[in-house]
Amino acid sequence: MIKINLTQFDAVIFDLDGTLVDVLIDWNEVRAKLKRFFQRKNIDLGGENINLAIQLALEKLPEDERRPAKKQTDWLFSQAELAVVSKVKLIPGSREILMWLKDKKTPACLVTRNSRPLVEAVWQKFNLPKMSAVIGREDFWKTKPHPESLRLA
């Protein structure tokens, strides 16, 4: 058994999808909707990484259009996420590590490119212990791995 001295940490930060749960989203469908959204604004949504492609596309917009466009892209993502909540699977050991941290009174934070509504639905579905902080896609402008989201946690 591994022994960890938690006194050396201020908190433990988790990602959501692929770390605590598996969210099974049809990314091709989401990309197609986002591509149509940006085409209406005469912007090509290129790139392999959908999150980085969106960030770069948003930066091509006039400044006064960026925040409303980000809200719209966040909403499109959120709708796709919420449509698959029933299919989300808890990764083995996730509940146990979160409960262990809670018992040790070690703050556990979540930083995710997923939406807060998805986080809330997943926490309710699996009855997971409350996190000390939750930073969702709506809370930051620059996508991970940019450190902005981690600084917020």
Characterize the structure shown:
A 3-stranded parallel beta sheet has the order 1-4-5. Strands 2-3 form a two-stranded antiparallel ribbon. The chain has 6 helices and 5 strands; from the N terminus they run E-E-H-H-H-E-H-E-H-E-H. 18% of the residues are buried. The chain has 153 residues and is mainly α. The chain is 46% helix and 9% strand. The longest helix has 20 residues, at 63-82. Helix 1 (27-39) runs antiparallel to helix 3 (63-82). The radius of gyration is 17 Å and the shape is elongated.
Write the layout of secondary structure elements.
Elements: E1 12-14, E2 21-22, H1 27-39, H2 50-60, H3 63-82, E3 89-90, H4 94-103, E4 108-111, H5 116-126, E5 133-135, H6 148-152
Parallel strand pairs: 1-4, 4-5
Antiparallel strand pairs: 2-3
Mean pLDDT: 88
Radius of gyration: 17 Å
Largest sheet: 3 strands, parallel
Give the CA-based shape. elongated
Keywords, separated by commas or semicolons:
mainly alpha, 5 strands, three-stranded parallel sheet, 153 residues, 46% helix, two-stranded antiparallel sheet, elongated
